[in-house]
Design brief:
The structure is a homodimer.
Chain A lengths: L3 H12 L16 H16 L3 E4 L5 E5 L9 E6 L12 H16 L8 E6 L12 H6 L5 H5 L9 H7 L15 E7 L4 H5 L3 E7 L1 E10 L16 H18 L5 E3 L3 E4 L9 E10 L2 H22 L2 E10 L2 E2 L2 H13 L4 E6 L4 H5 L5 E6 L15 H19 L2
Parallel strand pairs in A: 3-4, 3-5, 5-14, 6-13
Antiparallel strand pairs in A: 1-2, 2-4, 6-12, 6-14, 7-10, 7-11, 8-10, 9-10
The complex binds N-(aminocarbonyl)-beta-alanine (URP) (2 copies).
Chain lengths: 406, 406
């Protein structure tokens, strides 16, 4: 069974890696902090007897093949990069639970027929480099290694150069190891499980994601002398857009969400009308048609805004993923494993993006969720109870045992 | 008469000082660029035979006292600091026209009864350190030198330390030289003179200015998993505020203006609901009562916003100046001087803040405006025709001659 103390101790140790200048936990992909996290996790993987490889996009893959079959492994995984001012659980839970599962099988003397693999994928969060889930997307063949390595970050860095700099630009072609199945344990990051008092989420699908960057160009002018009706204020246009997005998301059937997480004004001076605004838009919906309709409305809105506010608007696509349906067989196995352990379980939709959604292109895949206290994530206030973390890892252990045929 | 070639040549030379990393003209107060500008202007003042002093807040004061009376000088002045990505005329026009006026009097062999003084005041723009017109405010006794030197800038620097660093922290107490009268030539920075085809503005008053910094605290959470109705989105609250300010300013009788020039989100990540927004609000109105009413409405609005959006709002006052009425006698002299030169002239209100509004606390003061092409200022597109600049300087020469009794 899962060594809870070791699993939770490692989670706590990894959580200490990567405080930024303001004391916030910020382990952006391919940063120095990410390197420190990777070094720690690689060490643990080796201690657990895994053969660790790094592929060209920096994905860490640990392999345990006790039967020497070399055939398609059962893969577990997630990521260890974080957002800015992040919590301790997002991503790390899945990687370290996967490690705990392999260690539990070894400790029990199990000799699985199929190999087991553990992945820590590069740049899942998408905060430094877009799109999110970049490492697993490349692994699954959805983006070329070359294009991915050339990605320019929010700080102007190039992903390939940063991976080389931190010593995690491997030589192996991503996706060489083709899994038999993929499983990912993750904190829910939303309010559903806690609100319903359910211990385990069997994730059967994952909503669509649309990321765009909008640049609005108006004209700088003097804040005191320029009449309101003669202004071409890029900041006002951006504000009207943010307000509309909130209305539009709230107006539907309550499933669409819209977020403007970044917004920058130029020249950014108190008495200068903003000449330019650059903002990001994150739209999501579990239904592909509804997501596309929201995007179409947004395009129309931007046209109208440009006309009415006398500004120009340009849009850059940062990420676009349709909703994903997970493998129903694995979802049923998760439900069965939870029930067999006396844990309450429900099927659910993932609101967040996950590496599992990319791996689902390659092999049967599904996810196990555990409750997030207060539904909080992407925040230092992110929490999951120890017992829930260990229960989730135990369910994953049972499903893996089931899938790899010991 | 005014040496147009020298005046315009210096304006062009000063305009080249202070390109920032992006090639923009950015000569923020007490920066390295400001030092270079000050060095240039100080050299020109000395060439013109002025006795140049620097006071404790860094104001440059050049004195010409040919009769050796030592009594209250007629002072001209303005500033040479700029906003970010600025034009070439704002402030520099007044300083260099003042220099040209003194040189014209010397060249003509005039020996004025009263001394003449020329000031280049510190930090008029208020972009790096608030409030704006800081140097002339201190000069006029409206703010203590100690408080002013302790001002923390938008970049975290302390004004006193920066003045010392660039070698412009003088030893003289500001305001020692008490002027008999103060005159400032400035580009209008707005559309009125050009629209009406008028050459000279005799500025009879200047609108009130209210600057506030608003901090909105919500809660970070995940952009994909957090339902719209459970969010505490500081960015949405900021956007609703910006939209309201525009409505409120436009709704009045068309005289109030409101600008949000700065807006910063934290943590500033694409898939994180903003936990915090910090923005500046610049409100202006020529009428004291209307400005106060706008401020009162804003306070109410912020309270409502905090309640409805479940955020906390704190406000920091950055600047507050009531409308100023200039000296009617000097205004009449400006009108008369313009007419005597065959120039069209109108009385007008200044939409921008100016050092003259602070000097009006000390002595009779007024301003001369010349047209801004397209009404543009606080922008690299700021322009005034050469002929208009020279006409404005000539009118100032006549009024100064009148005031200083040659
Ligand atoms: N799980 C998670 O937070 N992934 C980051 C990508 C996204 O959903 O925004
Ligand atoms: N004249 C001028 O642009 N002054 C700066 C202060 C302000 O009015 O915003």
């Amino acid at each position: 069974s899962i060594d809870a103390a070791r699993f939770l101790g490692r989670l706590a140790a990894l959580a200490e890696i990567g405080r930024d200048g303001q004391g916030r936990r910020t382990r952006l992909a391919a940063s120095d902090a990410d390197r420190a996290g990777r070094d720690l996790v690689t060490g643990w993987m080796r201690e657990a007897g895994l053969d660790v490889r790094v592929d060209r996009i920096g994905n860490l893959i640990g392999l345990w093949d006790p039967s020497g079959t070399g055939s398609g492994p059962v893969m577990m995984g997630s990521h260890i990069d974080t957002v800015i001012d992040a919590g301790a659980y997002d991503g790390c839970t899945g990687v370290l639970a996967g490690l705990a599962v392999i260690e539990a099988l070894r400790a029990a003397g199990d000799v699985p027929t199929r190999p087991l693999a553990l992945a820590a994928f590069t740049n899942e969060e998408g905060v430094r480099y877009a799109p999110d889930m970049l490492g697993s997307l490349v692994y699954a063949g959805g983006l070329s290694v070359e294009a991915a390595l050339a990605t320019v970050g929010t700080d102007g860095t190039v992903l390939g150069e940063e991976l080389a700099r931190i010593g995690y630009a491997g030589s192996e072609a991503p996706g060489t190891l083709r899994p038999h199945a993929y499983l990912e344990l993750h904190v829910e990051q939303g309010p559903v499980l806690e609100r319903e008092g359910v211990a385990i989420g069997a994730v059967e699908d994952l909503q669509g994601i649309s990321w765009q960057e909008v640049t609005i160009e108006g004209a700088a002018n003097h804040a005191g002398t320029t009449p309101m009706d003669l202004r071409r204020d890029a900041g006002v246009a951006a504000a009207l857009l943010v307000a509309w997005l909130r209305e539009r998301a709230g107006a539907g059937n309550g499933r669409s969400v819209a977020t403007v997480g970044r917004l920058r004004l130029e020249p950014d001076a108190i008495n200068v009308i903003p000449a330019r605004a650059v903002l990001t838009i994150d739209l999501r919906d579990p239904d592909a048609g509804r997501l596309a309709a929201f995007e179409a409305d947004l395009r129309q809105r931007l046209d109208g805004l440009a006309r009415r506010e006398n500004v120009t608007v340009t849009v850059r696509r940062l990420a676009r993923f349709d909703p994903v349906t997970f493998d129903s067989g694995i979802v049923r196995r998760i439900e069965a494993a939870a029930r067999a352990r006396g844990l309450s379980v429900r099927r659910m939709t993932s609101g967040a993006g996950h590496d599992a959604q990319m791996m689902a292109r390659l092999c049967p895949a599904a996810m196990i969720f555990v409750p997030s206290i207060g539904g909080i994530s992407h925040s230092p206030a992110e929490r999951t109870a120890d017992a829930d973390l260990v229960a989730g890892a135990a369910v994953m252990l049972d499903v893996v045992r089931d899938l790899c045929g010991t």
